Amino acid sequence: MYLRPVIAVLTACLAAEVRGFYLPGLAPVSYCDPTKEANKEKLEQGECRSKVELFVNRLDSVESIIPYEYDRFDFCVPTEEWAKSPTENLGQVLFGDRIRPSMYNISFLKDEKCKDLCGAKSYDPTNADQSKNLNFLKRGVLQNYQHHWIIDNMPVTWCYDVEGDRKYCNPGFPVGCYVTKKGTPKDACVINPLYNEKDTYYLFNHVDIFISYNDGEGENWPGARLLSAKLEPKSINHPKPGECPEDRPLGLPGSKADKVHFNYTYSVEFVLQNGHKWASRWDYILDSMPHTNIQWFSIMNSLVIVLFLSGMVAMILLRTLHKDIARYNQMESALEAEEAQEEFGWKLVHGDIFRPPGAPMLLAMLLGTGSQIIMSVVVTLVFACLGFLSPANRGALMTCVIILYVCLGTPAGYVSARMYKTFGGERWKTNVLMTSFLVQGVVFGVFFMMNLVLWVEGSSAAIPFSTLIALLALWFCVSVPLTFIGAYFGFKKRPIEHPVRTNQIPRQIPEQSFYTKPLPGIIMGGVLPFGCIFIQLFFILNSIWSHQIYYMFGFLFLSGLTRSTTCLVSCSY
Ligand SMILES: *[C@@H]1O[C@H](CO)[C@@H](O)[C@H](O)[C@H]1NC(C)=O
Ligand SMILES: *[C@@H]1O[C@H](CO)[C@@H](O)[C@H](O)[C@H]1NC(C)=O
Predict the structure, then answer these.
(1) Which residues pair with 379 in a beta bridge?
(2) Does the Cβ of 116 fall within 6 Å of ligand 2?
(3) Which residue in 356, 367, 358, 355 sits closest to 434, CA to CA?
(4) What gap in Å lies between CA 388 and CA 559, rounded to an integer?
């Protein structure tokens, strides 16, 4: 009976800690009406702003793995200001964010109606360049590429009804929608029943932007603050300037060689919403995501798996030990036991348990790198749980992981060197070099190859050359020296003392049953931890690949704990 409120409170704690907590760099921006005489001075002194800047980001799609920059499509692009993009941190660049200025000219409290963005775009099929541009645009519509816009450091969302009287707010909206030759509309076309012509591309060339704000009345702020930015994409074939009738959609035929021309337009409406707090302005996006129940299910799921596994291991241990102890007890005196000389059962293991493995170098190196990864993940999660890496702080998560990983080279070197020494290894130079370069080299190699492919495809996800150099510099100038320092201390220490001696002669390994052979063992050992984490994994991969916002670090932390327990327990089989 008391479980529900407890769960509710826990959910609130876990989900809410990132809300309402902002770092100094993410301070709120005040806006004021430039038409009012009283605000002139404030505007001049920079106390408030009148221009509401709209930034565009790269476009991506779940149906295609390659994101493209905004200017790759033939949209309206401010050619001069394009280079003046806001600075991006390392994490943003690596994750493929490409934030650029746009031509949408929005002034605070100035509503616009069907305003032309950059004049007419015309496509003549006899012109090779123009038909190429049009085809690329159509391909974007077909593959459901999504815009991601930013106003006042917030995603511009497209909210629509989903089943069960709920609204889902998507931090992006599609380029357009396609109705197939059979007449079945693809996802986004259902927003308007008029988008129904067969084999037609409906381009969303008009957006209605709604910006809600709190004018600071009754709050101790100096000006107005923006609370949300929502939009509705529309496809409109304009009859004449300044008119945006919704019943005339702009359908581009799938296969016809006619000349087409259209304009991009936009409307802006400012909505006063006093009583809403600036600090909780992200809530409406996060609340519309149907995550929380699934998260609890995932935690319960992994807890059950952990309990089940621990029970199994305990039972097996008990049974084995019980048999062995009974056999020892059967020998009447200690003398007899000593005479018997030969040990049996689980005690036999002690003579071999600390025997150095066949490939001490590889194991020591992997242990070192593994401890580096685990430490950086744990520290990042702690930061994230404390709210430092909230989604408002774009790119902070990735930057944090990378910087921590690079700085934690010392523990990696130390663990690797100490273990290698304990295993009796002597080639310490090779060990240090392997620890600094092998895993990182493989990861960087794969990354570089993928980047090469993206670069050839003209995708925006390809990182610029300067970022590549920065990454290499971080690796060679920070990570490698730190690893060497760690290794120096690791080798100076005495090797770890084992509590029991290792026998001179290795014991014969008994005939193995099917399931203790390496391959089945690896598969069975991996299935259970995977079962524990797949829901979290789903959300994380979604946030990496399809621009969803990931913010439930509390849940991630919990499920990380249960997952490591599962791994430990599975390993002890
Ligand atoms: C944007 O709008 C403001 C006022 O509405 C106007 O003064 C300014 O010239 C416009 N800027 C551009 C680039 O069109
Ligand atoms: C489209 O752009 C042209 C200029 O290129 C302009 O004359 C026309 O009025 C615009 N149409 C709309 C609906 O804004």
Answers:
(1) none
(2) yes
(3) 367
(4) 20
Backbone dihedral region of 114: left (phi > 0), alpha (psi from -120 to 50 degrees) or beta? left
Which residue, judged by its Cα, is nearest atom 14 of ligand 2?
241
What does the DSSP 8-state code read for residue 450?
Answer: H
Q: Is 107 in the pocket of ligand 1 (CB under 6 A)?
A: yes
Which residues lie closer than 8 Å to 462 by C-beta, 6 or more apart?
451, 454, 455
pTM value is: 0.79
116-144 in b/e form (b: 16+ CB < 10 A) is ebeeebebeeeeeebeebbeebbebbbbb
Does ligand 2 come within 6 angstroms of the Cβ of 118? no
Of 16-25, 327-336, 444-453, 454-463, the least confident: 16-25
The single-letter code of the amino acid at 178 is Y
CA distances to 105, 375, 389 from 379, rounded to whole Å, are 42, 6, 12
Atom of ligand 1 nearest to the CA of 110: 5
89 C-beta closer than 6 A to ligand 1 = no
Distance 161 CA to ligand 1 centre (A): 35
- Tell me what the mean pLDDT of segment 333-351 comes to: 64
User: Of 71-80, 86-95, 123-132, 475-484, which gets the smallest average pLDDT?
Assistant: 86-95
Is the beta carbon of 120 within 6 A of some atom in ligand 2? Answer: yes
Asked if pLDDT for residue 336 goes beyond 70, the answer is no
Cα 240 to averaged position of ligand 2 atoms, centre (Å):
7
User: Which residue has tokens 């730190």?
Assistant: 482
> Does ligand 1 lie within 6 Å of residue 105's CB atom?
yes
> Within 60-198, where are the H helices?
90-95, 128-142
Q: Which of 105, 107, 266 to mutate to test the pocket of ligand 1 (most atoms within 8 A of CB)?
A: 105
Does residue 84 carry a pLDDT above 80? no
Query: By alpha-carbon position, which residue is closest to atom 8 of ligand 2?
Result: 241
The CA R_g of the chain, rounded to the nearest whole Å, is 31
Paired with 269 in beta bridges are: 210
Work out the pLDDT band at 291, boundaries 50, 70, 90: low
What residues contact residue 115 under an 8 Å CB cut-off, 6+ apart?
A: 265, 266, 267, 268
- Spatial CB neighbours of 482, under 8 Å, sequence gap ≥ 6: 406, 407, 408, 409, 410, 413
- On the question of pLDDT at 19 being above 70, the answer is no
* CB contact burial 262-299 (16+ within 10 A = b; e otherwise): bbbbbbbebeeeeebebeebbbbbbbbbebbeebbebb
